[in-house]
Each structure stands twice: as C-alpha cells, then as structure tokens.
Amino acid sequence: MMAACADDSGPEDETEAPAEETAEETQLKAGLASEPVSLDPHAANDGNSLYVMNTLYDTLVEQNTDLEIQPALAESLEQIEDTVWEAKLREDVTFHDGSPFNAEVVKANLDRVRDTEIGSPLGFLFDMIENVKVIDEYTVQIETAYPFSALPAHLAHPGGHMISLEAIEADNEAIANGEEPFSVVNENPIGTGYFKFEERAVSGEITVVKNEDYWGEQAGMDSIAFHFVPEDLTRIAELQTEDSDFIYPVNANNVEEVDNNDGTHVMQSDSASMTYLGFNVEREPFDDERVRQAIAMTLDKDEIINGVLNGVALPAKGPLAPTVFGYDENIEPIDRDVEEAQSLMEDAGYADGLEVTLMAYDTNTGDIAQVIQSQLNEIGIDVDIQMTETATYLEDTANGSVDMFLGSWGTVTLDADYGLYPMFHSDNAGAPGNRSFYANEEVDGLLEDARQEGDEAERLSLYADAQQMIVDEAPIVPIYHSVLLSGLRDEVNGYYQFPSSFPFFRDVTIEAE
C-alpha cells in the first residue's frame, strides 16, 4: 500500500514518498514420509494424517508440553456424577468458515464419530459414551455407560477434534447422495485450529495458513507447506539444501549425518510407541500359538536395534512403553531360545519349515524385515518380504489379507486403555487397531473391567494381567519402543514433539538470517 498520495490541488511533488516496509511472510517447509489418508479427524488414525490435522483442529481439552490435560475449547471438564461429565465451553470461538462453536457442535461431533453407519475407525475411543446432552448454548453433558476415568485423555486425542457443524452437514448430504463418508470434510477441512486449510496442490502438497482469528495463542509462522517424501535419504537431502526446514522421521542410521551437516540437527524425544511384528492369527500357520511363540523366541531384538536403529531404541518387553500409565516393568517377555523355538515348530507340525510373507512399508521396516528374514531362517522359516506403500499396507492389514507384518502403535493418550483396547480387544479387529485379529474372551474381560475401574491400583493390576496374557499368546511380538527423531534446520526454534509422535507447530519460528 502507498504510504501517501499526491494532492491533485497542489503542485506536483517530484519526490516519491517511501513505502512502508512490510514484514516478509514466514513459511515452514515440512517434509513428511507420506500423504495423509484423510484430513477428516473421524476418518483417519495414521500418523501422517494426524500430524497435519493437529494444526487445523482443536479438542475440548488438550495435553500440554508437561503432558498434563488442560482446558482447550472447553473452559472446564468436570465429572459431576460417576457416569456424567460436564463441559463448559468457550464462548469466543468461531470455525474457519465463520460458523460458531457451541454445545450443538460438540454433540454433532461426538455423535458422528460414534455413528456405526458412518463407520469411523476412531469410534472405539468413545464407545463408552451413551449420550451427549445439550444443556444450554455453551454447556454439554457427556453420559458414559460406566465410570471411565480416562475420558479426558480420550477427548484430548485427535479423534476428539471438533469439525464445523456446516461441514458435517455437508458431508451428511453427500452421503445421502451416494458419496463415501468423510469425503467432503477431507476435501475442505474446517476446524478452529491455529492454522487453517488453504489448498492441496496437484503434487499433493498441503498448505495451511495462520488463523488470524484464533481464540488462543497465535501461531509463530504465517504458513506451513507439508510435502511428502517417502525416501529417507531424499528427505535428508531436502533438509540439507533448505528445501525443507523440518523433516520427520529421520532414520536412526542417518542421525550422525544430519548432526554433522552444517546447519541441521536431529531432535531426539521419548516416545509412547511400540514397533512390533504382527501375525494374522486367523490365517495358517499363525492360528497356532506355538508357531507365534517360536518366532518370538527366535527374534533377536538387540540385533535389530543395534543393526538397523544404531542402538537408538528401547527393547520392548510388552506392548506399552515406559511413558504410558499402565506400563508394567515386571512383564515376563518371551526370551530368545532358538533350540526351544525349533522344538515348538516340530510340535506344531512344521519340522520341515514353512514359507510366509512379511509386509513392510518404508525403509525402516524394510531393513527390519531383512534382519527378521535372516533370523527366522534359523528355524526353517523362509520369509518373502513384500514392500508396499503406506496406504496399501493400511488397507491390506485392516482387511486381514496379510500373513505377517511390521507395525507400530503410539499410545497417544499415554493411558493403557488406548495402548491395549484398540490393539487387542476383539471388537476392534481390523482398521481400529487389532490388525492381528486377536480374540481372547479373558483379555476382552480384563480390558473391559479396567475401563470401568475407578481405583488406580486395581486398574494397574488388570492391565498387568492383560499384558502378560498378550505377551504369552503372542498375537504380536513387541520389538522396541522408538526414540522420536525429527530433523530440523538450526534456525528453527520453538519446536516440540509429544511422546505420541505428534509435532507441535504452534510456537515454531524461523530465526532470520
């Protein structure tokens, strides 16, 4: 804009008034491993989707960087009865489309994510909710089927992101016209977050821009451009050439390269994740727990961690990381014993060995698969490694068309319910998390009882029993708890990564050169 303009009534001024200097817009260039499955928070539970969506949406309550639950869109969340929680909502919040945030919106979102006809893969997070009741414009009550002390942690999960009511209604109309659920919100995601969706390029790059009307603390950057680079070395090259300011993840074998490069470094953070070898227990030969146990006895976790991850990981005893409430250090893992493994294979009728396929989906899991392939040769198992893209991997493991697969699970809420119930309860077979199709009535009962138990010590006891049973029956083999590795340009400040693996971009700034 011009700082001044000429007065037509006076003599012409030969000198031009100087223009005001405007601050250069700042953009964070973020390189992720793959494109989001969806930008509808009720449609996707994969990391890359959540990394982008966390900039666009807010939850009623949220986890702060001290890993404590604090108010967000709800000014308060109080358990007023054993099975009733009351949320008092902020009155100063609008969605990116200008529509209001209120109790009706909360009800619409929690009803939608629980609607079995729509089929959200995150419905398990809220299946203890029986009713959502609007008390007044900014007060809502959530009624649960039983006392559930972990509800605030579940509401802080991205599955609790609040979508514009108008966007939900548009999606419902599209469904009525024969379109797939979640398609409208995915194409035009509308939340209340500190960034708002701007565009998705033909290349797949997604740009989000600062929400100037954000109800909370403003974002430090004007925009973020998320681009998607499956190859680890290409992501690192982009960081080194300044085509990216941030990349995730960094392969453990490349940490030294990034740290030794001028202008880049790796941030290491504790995680709540577990990487595992999974079996489809409904398919032969993995319907025989002796085969699964034999494989568990043959895996050398230290060789995997040291050989593939450069030692940057913690061997896993069970499915929960030490950062998670419910972790039991007394779990007895299946220790390596190749001789006993061979005996189990003989007992199961596979003295002459067998042939299986193992699905992996990126460089890291591919490298792990090669080590496992070599190790299982010791007991006569011939492993055919099947490399695929993330989207295909998620689809195939969800529909049960895979023998063995390498997977990971992050306990986002830092509560054992989320680390165990989705992965091992029979109701959650497939996409919700139980990709091994494991079904054990006793484990189901322990997990259900733990959900309903108000006494903390008793909850821990129930979870300990469930974990030991899961480890013993080996529907999966827990391999390691990862260290989160993010690559950053040195001029990037204010970045934080939650143990869930979610990047926190709100406070990020880039120091001027």
UniProtKB/TrEMBL annotation:
Residues 68-430 form the Solute-binding protein family domain. Pfam families: SBP_bac_5 (PF00496). This is Glutathione ABC transporter substrate-binding protein. Residues 9-24 have a biased composition (Acidic residues). SUPFAM superfamilies: Periplasmic binding protein-like II (SSF53850). The lineage of its organism: Bacteria, Bacillati, Bacillota, Bacilli, Bacillales. Residues 1-29 are annotated as: Disordered. CDD domains: PBP2_Ylib_like. It comes from the Bacteria. Transmembrane segments: none annotated.
